[in-house]
Amino acid sequence: MKKIEYRFRILSLFFMATLLLTSCSNDDDDDDGNWVDMSTFDGSPRSGTAYFTINDVGYIGAGYDGDDYLNSFWSYDFAGNFWSQKADFLGSERSSAAGFQVDGTGYIGSGYNETEYELYDFYSYNTGTNTWTQIASLPETEARRGAVAFGINGAGYFGTGNDGDNDLKDFWKYTPGTDTWAELEGFGGDKRVNAVTFTINDLVYLGTGISSGSYPTDFWYFDPSTETWTELLELDEEDDYAITRDNAVAFNLNGYGYIATGDRSGATTSVWEYDPSDDTWDDKTSFEGTSREGAVAFTNGSRAFVGLGKSGTLYLDDLDEFFPFDEYDDED
Question: What is the mean pLDDT of residues 84-110?
Answer without folding.
Answer: 98
